[in-house]
Design brief:
single chain; eight-stranded mixed beta sheet; two-stranded antiparallel sheet; about 25% helix
Length: about 230
């Protein structure tokens, strides 16, 4: 059985990741392998004995990894997780494995290759003008995104999908080997794709929009890249 690695965080000495992502992996016929971050002192070279990598959502990313000092609006970070996932991303890409970043996962994917983030989109970007931390449940969409017509994403969900939103950080500078393929109505970056077609980042949480069949196709498209 092919294996999909799924990243996780640690909070109060407990491992956590999104159960919905575990279910998506299993329902598509793959074995989910949950990867936990380790301390920087004990961090080994990452192994890539799996067939694809999904980077899950979670806490803010430590700004030292994109050469910035922390702003007052920055929330909880975990530099152990950040460093572990950056190493994991680079090793997986070198191995030619497909990578899908969801929420925080898209942001760390961008940072791993030299991109940067808005530590807080409302504090740093006066152009951010819609609600990106929705008050309603994530099973409900909150705003539209505009998708580049020639992108992989457009082929899967069309040019103007209605998505959910739960983030106060976002991509500021896009890493050189990525293209912006979706933006919110206020210009906040909502999706990126790598030039080699193996890596994709999605800012919203498609696994939570179970009533929208087109969102499930994001995962189907990712799984179809697995050899």
């Amino acid at each position: 059985m092919k294996k999909i690695a799924l990243t996780a965080g640690i909070k109060d000495n407990q491992l956590f990741t999104n159960r919905a992502l575990v279910d998506v992996i299993a329902k598509n016929g793959f074995l989910p392998i949950v990867l936990a971050p380790v301390s920087l002192k004990a961090m080994p070279e990452p192994l890539t004995d799996f067939d694809g990598l999904i980077l899950s959502d979670g806490d803010d990313i430590t700004p030292i990894f994109y050469n910035e000092e922390p702003l007052p609006e920055l929330k909880v970070t975990d530099p152990h997780r950040d460093q572990y996932e950056i190493n994991l991303i680079k090793a997986s890409h070198e191995a030619g494995l497909p990578i899908l970043g969801i929420g925080r996962g898209m942001q760390i994917l961008n940072v791993a290759f030299g991109g940067s983030l808005f530590q807080d989109i409302y504090g740093q970007n006066s152009g951010a003008g819609i609600q990106h931390v929705q008050a309603s449940n994530l099973s409900l969409p909150a705003h539209h995104v505009n998708v580049t017509p020639e992108s992989q994403l457009a082929q899967v969900i069309g040019n103007h999908p209605y998505v959910n939103s739960l983030h106060h950080q976002a991509i500021k500078k896009v890493a050189d080997n990525f293209n912006i393929v979706a933006t919110a109505p206020d210009g906040i970056i909502e999706s990126i794709e790598s030039s080699d077609g193996l890596m994709q980042g999605i800012q919203w949480r498609p696994e939570e929009l179970s009533s929208d069949e087109s969102q499930a196709k994001i995962f189907t498209s990712f799984f179809n890249k697995i050899k």
